[in-house]
Design goal:
heterodimer, A: 253 residues, mainly alpha, 11 helices, 77% helix, B: 308 residues, alpha/beta, Rossmann fold, Alpha-Beta Plaits, 2 domains, 6-stranded mixed beta sheet, 4-stranded antiparallel beta sheet, elongated, binds adenosine-5'-triphosphate, binds magnesium ion
Amino acid sequence: MECQISNPSPRGVFQAHAVKALAARTLRSYFESPTATVTLFVFYLLTGYLFAAPLFLVKIASLRGLIDFVPLLLAFLVPALTMGLLAEELKSGTFETLATLPLEDWDIVLGKYLGFAALHLVCIAGLIFYVLVLALCASPAGLDWGEMLGTLLGLALTGLAFGAIGIFTSSLGKNQVVAFVMAFLVCFVLFILGKTAGLLPGGLGSVVEYIGLDAHMDNLAKGVLDSRDLVYFASLVFTFLYLTVQRLQARRF
Amino acid sequence: MILAKNLTKRFGDRTVVDHINFDIPQGQVVGFLGPNGAGKTTTMRLLTAYLPADEGQAELAGLNVFNQPLAVRRRLGYLPEDNPLWEDLELTEALHFAGRLRGLTDDASRAARVRAVVKSCGLRREIGTKVGELSKGFRQRLGLAAAIIHDPEILILDEPTSGLDPNQVLEVRDLIYELRTHKTVLISTHILPEVTATCDRVIIINAGKIVADGTPADLAGDMADKNRLHVELKGPKDDIRRALAGLPGASQIVADEIEGSFIVESAAGADLREGVFRLAAHNDWPILSLRQERLSLEEIFRALTQNP
Ligand SMILES: Nc1ncnc2c1ncn2[C@@H]1O[C@H](COP(=O)(O)OP(=O)(O)OP(=O)(O)O)[C@@H](O)[C@H]1O
Ligand SMILES: [Mg+2]
C-alpha cells in the first residue's frame, strides 16, 4: 500500500496542508453546531435594525449607524466564536494529538484562526447587501463608495483583530467561559479607549487614541486608506497570534 | 530506534523523569510499566517532543527528538493517555482528518489508507457512528487507527487498553500484536498479563528511575533468590526423592503434597532439567511433568515498585 505524504516543508515554513485541514474543520464545526447560525442571526438582526432605522425614519443613506455600534457587537460575538478554538482542544486532550503531529504550533494557531476568519469575513461580506440597498434608494451620485468600502474594510479588520485576541484568551486554559469574558474585556477596552482619548491631556491622549479603535475606524470609514491604520490592525493580529503560539509552546495548561 | 540518554524532566523542584536510559532496537515491542505517577506519560511526552526535556537526549529512528521534532513525528504514531478524540466527527471523517493533518493530501490514497486502518482495526461495523457515541473499546481502536493512518515505523501507545473489559483487552492486544511485524512499539500499561503475552521486553520505571529492563524471563531470573524446579515422575516416591537429592546442585527437595510432585531447589541461575531427564531415563521413571518455576511479572513489579 503506497502511502503518499506531501513534501515535508522545512522548519519555519507553514505546513499548508495542515493549516488548510484545520481551517476547514473549524469552519465546518461552526456550521454543524448552532454557533454559526446563532451568531449570523444575531449579527444580521442587529445590523439590519441599525441600518434600516435611520434609513426609513430620517432618510439618511449611510452606514454611519453601523460604524458606531458594530465594533461593540463584534466585541461580543467574535469572542463567542473564538472561545472554544483552543480551550476545547486543551480540555479534551486533543491538543496533545495536534501538538505531536508533524506540525509547528504556528500551523495549529493559524489553521484555527483562518477558520474563524473565514466565517467572520462571510459575516461582513453580507453587509454588502445593505450597500446595495443604499445604492438603489439613494441617488447614485449621493453615494460615497469610498466611505462604504472603507467602512466594510474597517469592520472586517476590527473583527480580525478581535479574533486574534479571542484565540489568545482561548489558549490560556481549558475554560471557554473564562476565555470569552477575557476576550470581551480586552476588545471592549480597545473599543472604549478611542472614545475617552479626547478627555485625556495631550501626549497621553494621542497614545490612547492610537491604541483605541475609533481613530483608525473613523479614518477607514471616511474612505481614507492610511497605512498607519492598516499597520495598527495588522500588528494587533500578529501580536496576539504570536502570544498564542508562545502560550502554547510553554505547555502549561 | 527509540533511544533515551539521561532523559530528565522536572516540574518545579520535583524530578519526574530522572536520568533514564534505554535503547530499543527496530522491531522490538516494549512494555513500559510503573505505578501511578511513576513518570510513564511524562517520558512518552518527552519522546514525542510534546514536552521539552530539562536534561538528556532522545532519538527516534536516528533523529534527535528535540532538534528535529517534525521529522521524528512523521515516523511516529502516538496514542496519548486517555485517548483524546474529536467527538463531533463521524468515524471515517475523524480518520480522514487525521490523514489530512499528516499530509495525506491525495484523496484516493488517503481513502485507501482509511479503508486499510478501518479493516485492520476492526472498525467496519461502526462506520457512520459519531466518535462521541462509540463504545470505549471502539474508541480505543479508533485512536489506534488514527495513530497508524500514515503507517509509521514507530508506535508509542500510552495505556491503549485502559478501561476495557477482558474481551476487549484481548482484542486490542491482538491488534497491537498484528501491528508489530514491521514496527517498533513502546506501550505503557497496568495490565501485566498483556505485557507477558505481547512484549519482547519490559522496562519498569519507579519514581522517575528505571528499576528493571529486560525480557520477562530475564527479570524473573535476576530477581529470584533461588531456582525451583517442579518434577513429577512415575515411580517409587522414596527412590525418586533420594535420586533427586543426589543431583549435583540440588540444595533441598520439598514434596508438593497436592500435586504429588517434588520441588527441587537449587542456587539461582542453575538449571537442573537436563539432570532430571538423565536420572529419569536411567531409572526408567517416565516424566509426567517438569516445570521451572518463574516469578510472575506481578511479583517482580511489586517487589521493584513498592516504596517503603
Ligand atoms: N504538567 C505537570 N505539571 C506538574 N506535575 C506534573 C505534570 N504532569 C505530570 N506531573 C507529575 O509528574 C508525575 C508523573 O506523572 P505521569 O503522568 O508521567 O505518571 P504516569 O506514570 O503516567 O502515571 P499513570 O500510571 O497514573 O498514568 C506525577 O506525580 C504528576 O503529578
Ligand atoms: Mg500515565
